[in-house]
Design a protein that fits this description.
The complex is a heterodimer of chains A (296) and B (201). Chain A has four helices and 14 strands. With 296 residues, chain A is α+β, with helices and mostly antiparallel strands. Chain A folds into two domains: 2-53; 122-296, Beta Barrel (Thrombin, subunit H). With 201 residues, chain B is mainly α. Chain B has one domain (5-167): Orthogonal Bundle (Arp2/3 complex 21 kDa subunit ARPC3), CATH 1.10.1760.20. Chain B is built from eight helices and no strands. The longest helix of chain B is centred in the last third of the chain and has 29 residues, at 133-161. Chain B starts with a helix and ends in a 9-residue tail after the last helix. Classes of the chains: A alpha+beta (296), B mainly alpha (201). The interface between A and B is large, with 55 and 53 residues.
Chain lengths: 296, 201
């Protein structure tokens, strides 16, 4: 009797483990149109309204917890922000005059503006959940295809780029953050040379990014700590960047000479607080816009 | 252990409730940069209360639900939670621990297994992640938070499923003594089995 129970227990355990491994193997590397992905989207569709309702119900509890955290960091944050405001005030006046000049020249030269942020409509959305693990940098928001959101639409939070839409249903969207290991963004440092590179996550360091492939030569001026990094937003023939140009991403937090000249990379701190986003803005493309290439 | 319909219903509701509360509330409250992970603790509690088979099946189902709802790679959480549920159940069946702080230690072990197992599987799946100090620090903090909330989570799970659980051996024995029943030590038939009788002449 006891032996029979032990055999039964082991058989069930082996069956469960085998099922998990089969699921893992079938799902991993499968295209997004596979039946398992479709099932996942269907389940998310069912859960989305429940989660949205639950998120609203528990928002007071969340706010209390957030209040303690915010109060703890408020003083140091206020001092830091005051310094930034002082520095930015000067920059804004310079940029405003540059922007006016840019608009005039663009009109005169009839430059293509489809890669600029003005060609997108902004869809505000509330965050329903964050992924609790360190390995999947994703969140779900309460706007979907019914609101004009499509896969690959850029997503902003705290006034900076936070990621892009990777899966969309009628009433929800899954946003993959720029710190996810699958994300790459063409970016530019706002220094004298406008150094360009490819922004990738520093996997294992969820609070920082790496700007790689910088073409900086010894003796030239190089990116330095504190300089702003924005999206490059290029357009070349049929290829258009997923992200419009000029969206802030973060600032250079470390520009080690060794890394810069040997590995051609600097470390970037994201401008948005990616772990505490409560709401975001999705940049939805016009429905009649041309398809964009899958390039960062 | 045979699963009764009432127990199955409560376990299904418990799994759904865990995932919804985890996503809607707990995941958005960050402590030292990380969020608590309720699912391994709930699976551990079910294993500890209901046994290894129920724990393993509940772990598989909860893991699958987590993977489906969170858009994670299917099978990863299921695989980890099967282990957590099964071993928690085996601890109950083999050791039958009575100390009140057992869920605390089990909670730490369950969270550690979930975190380290997830890291290991991600590395095997090809995520190019260096073992950074920050990563280790975040795993450590998550384990710490899991340990701290293990007792209340266990208490809530016990409150939900205990009324529909079949009596466990220790509870059955205790009830027998307190209601005037004999201890097995005083009942030779229970200790040694039926006594052989001499054949009738």
């Amino acid at each position: 009797m006891h032996d029979k129970q032990v055999r039964r227990r082991r058989a069930i355990l082996a069956l469960l483990v085998a099922t998990s491994l089969i699921l893992l193997t079938a799902y991993f590397g499968a295209p997004s149109t596979s039946p398992l992905h479709t099932l996942q989207r269907g389940i998310a569709e069912v859960f989305s309204p429940i989660q949205e309702g639950a998120s609203k119900v528990v928002s007071p509890v969340r706010d209390v917890a957030g209040w303690f955290s915010d109060t703890f960091h408020a003083k140091s944050r206020a001092n830091q922000l005051q310094k930034e405001v002082n520095a930015l005030r000067l920059e804004v006046s310079q940029y405003q005059s540059a922007a006016i000049l840019n608009r005039q020249l663009s009109r005169e030269l009839a430059l293509d503006q489809t890669a600029s942020i003005g060609s997108f409509s902004r869809v505000p959305a509330d965050v329903i959940w964050h992924d609790p693990t360190l390995w999947y940098q994703q969140l779900e928001v309460d706007k979907g295809s019914d609101d004009g959101v499509r896969v690959d639409d850029p997503v902003l939070g705290d006034g900076a780029l936070v990621g892009k839409v990777t899966s969309v249903g009628p009433t929800y969207s899954i946003v993959t953050l720029i710190t996810d290991h699958t994300t790459q963004v063409a970016a530019q440092v706002q220094d004298q040379n406008g150094d360009q590179g490819l922004l990738v996550p520093d996997v294992g360091q969820p609070n920082q990014l790496l700007l790689q492939d910088l073409q900086v030569q010894v003796g030239q001026s190089a990116p330095s700590v504190g300089q702003q990094v924005v999206t490059l937003g290029f357009k070349s023939g049929g290829l258009t960047s997923l992200y419009p140009r000029g969206i802030p991403i973060g600032q250079v937090s470390s520009a080690d000479q060794n890394d810069l000249y040997n590995n051609h990379e600097v470390v970037i701190s994201p401008a948005a607080d990616l772990r505490h986003l409560q709401s975001v803005e999705i940049l939805a493309r016009a429905q009649n816009s041309t398809a964009r290439a899958q390039v960062p | 252990m045979s699963l009764e319909p009432k127990l199955v219903l409560r376990l299904v509701l418990l799994a759904l409730g865990t995932v919804v509360i985890q996503q809607a509330a707990v995941s958005q409250v960050s402590i030292f940069g990380v969020s608590a992970d309720l699912a391994p603790l709930v699976v551990m509690s079910v294993g500890l209360l209901a046994g290894s088979m129920t724990g393993a099946v509940f772990g598989f189902a909860t893991g699958l639900l987590v993977d489906l709802v969170l858009f994670q790679t299917l099978g990863v959480s299921s695989l980890l939670y099967i282990g957590i549920g099964y071993w928690s159940g085996r601890v109950r069946e083999v050791l039958d621990p009575a100390h009140g702080l057992v869920p605390l230690g089990m909670g730490a072990a369950a969270t550690a297994l979930a975190q380290l197992g997830m890291a290991l599987i991600q590395f095997l799946l090809g995520v190019d992640a260096p073992v950074s100090v920050l990563l280790l620090q975040q795993i450590f903090v998550t384990i710490l938070i899991g340990t701290l909330i293990a007792l209340p989570v266990y208490a809530i799970v016990r409150r939900i499923i205990r009324p529909v659980l079949p009596d466990e051996p220790r509870r059955r024995r205790r009830r027998a003594y307190t209601t005037g029943g004999l201890s097995p030590l005083q009942r030779p038939a229970e200790r040694f089995g039926p006594l052989p009788r001499a054949p009738a002449r």
